[in-house]
Specification:
192 residues; two-stranded parallel ribbon; mainly alpha; 2% strand
Length: 192
């Protein structure tokens, strides 16, 4: 069995799958960025496992996270989503996804893509840390503080520094795979 980051509970297949295929792999697809922003916001106050287990239902409920469609959701659609047991039925989080879709589209228009907007913070290359265990990883950094402030200034919500740092880790803008993790080098090579 390969060495993995020590935050991955080996008895939970969803975490293994997420770690081994997604977490820390450099994203460059705008739809995937929007999905991740929505899901990280939905996760606030809950476990990531809850979100992973509801992700397919979210994709169906939120039109595959197409920001153009989500930005057009009205009160009737919000009511439909609040009645959907497959997702986290929190009005503020649902309304946040809709609001954030509009801001996301504005950023795409201004920057050509969300990818161009977000990767400029790291000059187009992942920040690579050298942690031995997950207990060394911070919950926030100066980078996540900066991006959080700028996202809020643009009009996003549910983008506090802790949520942003988790987003950066997941999207591969920050490589926080531990030194002994087999995915560390795979994620580094993916960006070169």
């Amino acid at each position: 069995m390969p060495n993995r980051c020590d935050w991955v509970p080996l008895e939970i297949p969803e975490y293994i799958e997420y770690h081994d295929r997604e977490w820390g792999y450099p994203l460059h697809d705008d739809r995937s960025f929007f999905e991740l922003l929505c899901l990280e916001g939905a996760q606030a106050g809950l476990s990531w496992l809850t979100v992973l287990r509801k992700r397919d239902a979210y994709r169906e409920a939120f039109d595959a996270f197409d920001p153009v469609k989500v930005a057009r959701y009205d009160e009737a659609k919000i009511g439909e989503l609040l009645g959907n047991a497959g997702i986290i039925r929190n009005r503020r989080k649902i309304e946040s996804a809709i609001r954030n879709a509009g801001v996301f589209l504005k950023i795409q228009e201004q920057w050509g893509s969300f990818d161009s907007f977000i990767w400029r913070y790291t000059e187009g290359r992942p920040v690579v840390n050298a942690w031995r265990t997950h207990t060394e990883m911070p919950a926030t950094t100066e980078l996540s503080d900066l991006i959080s402030k700028e996202l809020k200034r643009e009009g996003f919500n549910f983008v506090g520094s802790t949520i942003v740092y988790a987003f950066l880790q997941s999207a591969g803008l920050v490589n926080d795979h531990t030194l002994d993790c087999f995915r560390r080098e795979e994620c580094l090579k993916a960006h070169t």
